[in-house]
Amino acid sequence: MTTVDDFGGRSCPYCGALNSLEADDARGEVACTECARVVAMGLEENTQTRFVKDAVFGDLNEDGSGPGTVSGSGTLSRSDAVAIAEGRQAGKGAQASKANKYSRALHGQERVRQRLETLCDLIRRGDPVKEEALEILSVFVGRRKERNEKLDKMNESIAACVMLAAARCRTPLPLPELRTLDPSLGDVDLRRKDVVREVQLAEEEKQNRANYAKDLVKHYIRLLQMQMSKYEEPCLTLLEVLRTAAREQTGVCAPLSKLSEDGLCVAAVLLARTQSSFQWSGKPTYDKTSEPPTEVFYQSFAALSHLSATFVTKIMATVKPAVEVLVSRFNEARQQKAEKVAKKEGDAPTTLKRERQED
After folding, report:
1. Residue 198 to residues 16, 33, 145, 154, 193, Cα–Cα distance (Å)
2. Measured between alpha carbons, how far is 298 from 257 in angstroms, rounded to an integer?
3. Is 257 in contact with 270 (CB distance < 8 Å)?
4. pLDDT at residue number 9
5. Where is this region: Disordered (predicted)?
6. How is 107-123 classified by DSSP, letter by letter?
7. Class of the CATH domain delimited by 104-199
């Protein structure tokens, strides 16, 4: 006899929604979460335990009642299916509703889910990134399925979703790091644009791009266990100096124009950490006798950041001839910032006095 489990992961025969069928074991019914029609009735159950199979339907109150519970059963009922179809899940915002709508999009695709979770474990950005990546991928896959579009290039899709999730959590994932972890990846940037368009993340992506370099520098500072309060501002200043020198493309700084934004971020952090010629008030001092050789330090950083050692070595070899010029510009930039701060602080009492006189 047909059981409720026979309908798991199937599409609705009425509205055509993919992976939209949910079963109520107690009633022996299967309903569509999109159009709310009952697809089958009088089915035999093959489990004795009542449980909510997916947490998205279990928005319970403290007393155990709520839209996810039904008398005598903990699974989905027809009334729940209607509520979901009409988008009336209590307490859910627009983003949560979107995630819930496509929460079953990865049903039956354990390899895809496992691949994403494995990649998240490798990049070591934490569980929040993994959760955000699963949500983004579910919406992306769900919308493609709605239009019956072929789900191709899944490795690139997974990588793109993880990159977007990492950026959302302010721990950017550079493409060179991804390629070191998986050299077989194709055009991830192109797939990322597809995901942004499909999941409607254009505004978020714009903000992520604006914060990318700053967040990446901070990520590298944390990775090297450097004091954020001592290194953040000098590293960001040095990054601006490197950018300016790269744009000018003159003299010993001309080769800097070949470096990507990722490369400039790496250079800023490693120069600030390993080059004693870059000095500022409060810079930590290190015992030279216990410090590893610079090349060894670069290799250690490459291993920590999942970057190719060759990639890091080439970056530092490119900036080395320009260090003297960069030190001079770095000092000038910090002096200008200090003067602006002093001027702002000096103007404050004058402005306050003027305001009091006007009153």
Report:
1. 20, 21, 12, 15, 9
2. 21
3. no
4. 59
5. 337-359
6. TT-HHHHHHHHHHHHHH
7. mainly alpha
